[in-house]
Amino acid sequence: MTTEQTMHIDPRRLFNLGANLVAAGFIKQDANEAKKLFKDLKKGGALKGGQLKSEKSGDIIPIKLELDREEYRGQFNFPNFDVAVRSLLQKFETEVRKDKELKTLRTLTNQENGEVLFNIPSGVQIDGDINVLMMAVKPEIDCIIVRLVFMEPEPFLVETPPAK
């Protein structure tokens, strides 16, 4: 793909691509392989996760997986990460069950870099620390990056009214 070309992929396809990559990497494979992938992601950078073939041009587009844990709170280890990923995928499954064609898929797009953030936050509380995990997909010139992003939890917190 040249620098002149741009990728136009339906957000629903990006969502499916990202969700399937995360599920394949952490749920559908051997636990030791999932732990190895976690350790590699924890080091930083984007890891090769597969490839996509362009229907129009036939070009092969690499898919990479990346982790942003800057806003993560608490001990960052595989068991805690696994809980967060499983919770996120469960939330995705619920969204798909409610809207099989993903007609009401909520996204936020960064106009500067084209990154699509799927507005399906998943919050987990572990040892008193609340973390919110979301997924984003960012098209680059030479690849597509699926990003797992831990967000600052405060904007997602809802105050529960006292019981009467």
What are the key terms here?
globular, six-stranded mixed β-sheet, alpha+beta, 30% helix
Radius of gyration: 17 Å
What is the makeup of the main sheet? 6 strands, mixed
Strand content: 25-35%
In N-to-C order, the SSE pattern is: HHEEHEEEE
Strand arrangement in the largest pleated sheet: 1-2-6-5-4-3
Mean pLDDT: 86
- The gross shape turns out to be globular
Q: What is the number of helices?
A: 3
How many domains? The number is 1
| Total number of strands | 6
| Structure classification | alpha+beta
In whole angstroms, the N-to-C terminal distance is 61 Å
Fraction of residues in H or I helices: 25-40%
What ranges have pLDDT less than 50 throughout 5 or more consecutive residues? 1-5
Describe what this molecule looks like in 3D.
There is one protein chain. With 164 residues, this protein is α+β, with helices and mostly antiparallel strands. The chain has one domain (11-152). Helix content is 30%, strand content 30%. A 6-stranded mixed beta sheet has the order 1-2-6-5-4-3. A hairpin with a 6-residue loop joins strand 1 and strand 2. Helix 1 packs antiparallel against helix 3 (78-98).
Sum this structure up briefly.
This protein is of the alpha+beta class and 164 residues long. The chain has three helices and six strands; from the N terminus they run ααββαββββ. The chain has one domain.
Q: Any chance you could write out the topology, listing elements then pairs?
A:
Layout: H1 11-26, H2 31-42, E1 47-53, E2 60-68, H3 78-98, E3 107-109, E4 116-126, E5 129-139, E6 144-151
